[in-house]
Amino acid sequence: MKIVVSDAGPLRYLVETGYEGILEALFGSVFVPLRVLAELQHVSTPAKVRAWSSGLPNWITVRNAPAVDEGLNLDPGELEVIALALETHADLLIIDDRAGRSVAASKGLVCMGTLGLLALASRRGLLKFEPALESLLRTNFRASEDLIQAARQLSKA
Hints:
mainly alpha; 54% helix
């Protein structure tokens, strides 16, 4: 079984759009650090996401993150998610933030974002990419047109 660790952003967008179940279908289980759980429960997070995170499904495991590298210019959630991914020797880190992905990749972590997850789920027959993308774009998710086009191509591969 693969070890997968997720940041708050992709979880938030998948829950907002109703596609969070693809994580269990694709990976079986997902680890999140405590800081990510706190972000999902923050008052500024959509109510649907807060409610979901208050009664997490059994395929989500919340873990304490090891000491983080405070020298990195990332928010606390991204610091914890990278630290947890390194500690668990994660096969995949789910993260959207560009700076976080860059740091994670420089540490040898394989990363995938929300669009990549939707494309992978589409290729595996778990969802139809275009309706999922439309739903995602109705949230405050933002991505360049190039990234969206690349995900469209991946969804068909």
